[in-house]
Write the structure tokens for this entry.
Amino acid sequence: MSRIAANPIPYWASAGKTRAVFDEAFADFHAIGFTAVKADVPDDMSASDYRTWIGRYGLEPALSLFNSPFDESVAVADEVERAKQFAGTQLELGLDRTMISSMAVPLRIEQPAVGAGFDEDRLTQAIDFCGAVCQALAAEGLRPLHHSHVGGIFETEYEITRLLDDLGPDVIGFGPDTGHLRWAGIEPAPFITRYADRLGGIHIKDVFPDHLSGGGGSYRETTASKRLWAEPGLGVVDFDAVLAAIPDPYDGDFMIEVDEPSVQSKLESHRMSFGWARRALGSRIKE
């Protein structure tokens, strides 16, 4: 059975990844009823210490994410080595898969969701680069799942399908984010249907319609408006269709992610999201 997991990104995005910040997030998640949290082990903490820490709040580690720009700003050998170290930590936590994503490409942060500066050769190089990292993760025992993310080199439908189709299911699985897909102009449900046999994880995120036509400011400006990300059920993502597209059985978790809550309270945002998930997911989730 799947779990309802939480990503504490709205807690640390502006306040930083400090112990006090995570303690606040974990306490909120425990009070709401979450049983799993995205596994982000601080650099100064061992995997076993991290697991003990979150366990005090009744939480278990859930699907994390390895990110890289996959461009000329980083070296393939360095990213492969970093991936091996990341895999070791995730495996020690008892996880068997990870999201993998490209994000924070400067031009695309300034002009998000429109495929700014597209170059076919650059895309091909990025696909090869990502493939090398995926193979390194798999060799360590961790299954890589592509995670859609606006602001990265695999942003548009063409770029994501090129990545998934060129590398194939033996190299990379599928771990979509419903909100990032919709922001980039991709209807999540048909896209999930297309790659349903490779689905190993999913981020549940909704979006308001305000910024979906493009040209509405940078990634950070758009997010800060509080009119981009929405708690599930408040925006325009068709979650009935999304959930219908997810195959049964599905052995991954459902991770709630609202990068910038549309309400003032982070606790209330997660309470709203958890309540929606309990109603919408029903028998799919483990109590």
